[in-house]
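Case study 2.
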Amino acid sequence: MSRELLASTVHREFRFFGYNARPVPDLIVGLCREAPVVPEGCVTMIRLCSICCILAMSATMALAQPPRNESAGDAPVKVPVKAPPKSQKVDAQPVVKTSLKDGTSVKFSGGDEIPLGDFGRPIPLIAGALGVPQDVFRQAFSGVTPARGGGPTGEQARANKAALMKVLAPHGVSNDRLDAVSNYYRFNPGRGETWPRTPAAATVQVKDGMITGFKITSAGSGYSVPPKVTLPGHEDLSIEATIEFGKDLKTNGRVKSLKIAENVAN
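Prediction:
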């Protein structure tokens, strides 16, 4: 490559990157000023050198830029990005036609079952009255040794109480409160006894021949599990009851809500 063509090429590369000054490219080309024709190996080295100079000059100019003064209004404008609206879940109520009148009473049954593994005790009610999670009371009662063929001896009663309080005391349960709750829910199933319960009462709400909901007129109490709810003329209609527990013995295990869980043709 001729010296003139090499010089033209180097200057063109510098202008491409925005550098119009001649001293630096002239200096690079001058490295081969003694040769009228520059060997190809030298051409490659010179072009690499020119690229390195361009990169070095770019870095120097970037470092020389003054810091951004945000207080003077140079801060970048931040455009707020509006988050997409979250989808709202709406519980669709089944459409149920009925010939019943508004205010017709529903029927409650059951709700006093004791699941296997609960030691024959209404643990949801006892735990609710004590204000502890159900699994905590199950853990506490697992240390109790039931008396066989009669009441426990004094020694057995003290050992059982100690086992219960070892688990319950850290949860703020006092000995007196445990006695009060235990006595309230004590019963003898062999004699057909059950713990204190108050039946719930509710009516169906009807508008334009359609069931729109239910009105709980008495929440009741003492339900250890949700009771079965039936509606006259709609026995196949599944109505879901929810119950809630609390420390008040008179309202513990009461019905909280009713809703149609499934629409069955009737």
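The first strand starts at residue 107 and ends at 109.
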